């Protein structure tokens, strides 16, 4: 059953002509009528079904305007790097003892970073960390000797871009409370990253088939991109 709030939202917005993101942000924010600070989210449909292979994108983007979210971050490292991790803002820091807690199923964190040496031990916990998307990965910046940078990036505004088996990518560019400039900066950072990723893979035709923008409790609008990717 649809709520009274939902019934007041615009109907059949997917039938509207696509428009540029800068023109859609004001109407998206107008639709944010819930009591909390809703996220502004992008939904991509990519051309992942190729004749010879299936495209699987997985990368990270540092959003210049931030995410507006606080994450609980854990770091597994050698004892000699514990202070560096704590000073950088890690919420949980440990060595073998933290690995054992993870092994027992204690996953009270949202992101996990480790040093290369400790990755050897964590790699044995794939069945625990993998399904939760918590396994550290050098490509995603979560396996690093430079813990200060890795932690700062993760805390300040880093998001992961990853498509599902149907070629869908969902990613937030910020909150309703963000000014439009920061939302557009974050949007452009994601588009630029996808363009770079396209150059590293073989795609017949455009990588992005469709793009929509919505808010957490709102309705979606089709986005017209500045250029095809």
Characterize the structure shown.
Helix content is 31%, strand content 21%. By secondary structure, the chain is an alpha/beta fold. The chain folds into two domains: 4-57 and 163-222, Ribulose 1,5 Bisphosphate Carboxylase/Oxygenase (2-Layer Sandwich); 73-156, Rossmann fold (3-Layer(aba) Sandwich), CATH 3.40.50.790. It has a four-stranded antiparallel beta sheet with strand order 7-1-8-9. The chain has a three-stranded parallel beta sheet with strand order 4-3-5, with helices on both faces. α3 (82-88) links the parallel β3 (73-76) and β4. α2 (21-30) crosses α8 (180-199) and α3 (82-88) runs parallel beside α7 (147-157). The two termini are 39 Å apart.
Q: CATH homologous superfamily of the largest domain?
A: Ribosomal protein L1/L10, rRNA-binding domain
State the share of residues found in helices, binned by percent: 25-40%
Tell me the fraction of residues in β-strands, as a range. Answer: 15-25%
Overall spatial form: globular
The number of helices is: 8
Gyration radius, in Å:
20 Å
* CATH top level assignment of the largest domain: Alpha Beta
CATH architecture label name of the largest domain: 2-Layer Sandwich
What fold name stands as the CATH topology of the largest domain? Ribulose 1,5 Bisphosphate Carboxylase/Oxygenase
Query: Which strand order do you get reading across the main beta sheet?
Result: 7-1-8-9
Number of strands: 9
Domains (count): 2
Q: Which blocks of ≥5 consecutive residues have pLDDT under 50?
A: none
Mean pLDDT: 92
What pattern of helices and strands is seen along the backbone? HHEEEHEHEHHHEEHEE
Please give the alpha-carbon distance between the first and last residues.
Answer: 39 Å
Describe the sheet with the most strands. Answer: 4 strands, antiparallel
């Amino acid at each position: 059953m649809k709520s009274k709030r939902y019934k007041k939202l615009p109907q059949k917005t997917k039938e509207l002509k696509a428009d540029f993101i800068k023109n859609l942000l004001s109407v998206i924010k107008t639709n944010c009528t819930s009591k909390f600070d809703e996220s502004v989210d992008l939904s991509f449909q990519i051309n992942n079904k190729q004749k010879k292979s299936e495209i699987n994108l997985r990368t990270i983007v540092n959003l210049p305007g931030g995410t507006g979210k606080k994450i609980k971050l854990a770091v597994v490292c050698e004892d000699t790097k514990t202070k560096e991790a704590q000073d950088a803002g890690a919420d949980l820091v440990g060595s073998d003892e933290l690995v054992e807690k993870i092994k027992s199923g204690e996953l009270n964190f949202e992101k996990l970073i480790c040093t290369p040496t400790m990755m050897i031990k964590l790699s044995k916990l794939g069945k625990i960390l993998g399904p939760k998307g918590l396994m550290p990965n050098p490509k995603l910046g979560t396996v690093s000797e430079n813990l200060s940078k890795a932690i700062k990036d993760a805390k300040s505004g880093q998001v992961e871009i990853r498509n599902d088996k149907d070629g869908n990518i969902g990613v937030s560019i910020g909150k309703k409370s963000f000014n439009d400039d920061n939302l557009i900066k974050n949007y452009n950072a994601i588009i630029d990253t996808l363009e770079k990723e396209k150059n590293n893979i073989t795609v017949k035709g455009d990588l992005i088939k469709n793009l929509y923008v919505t808010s957490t409790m709102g309705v979606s609008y089709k986005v017209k991109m500045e250029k095809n990717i």
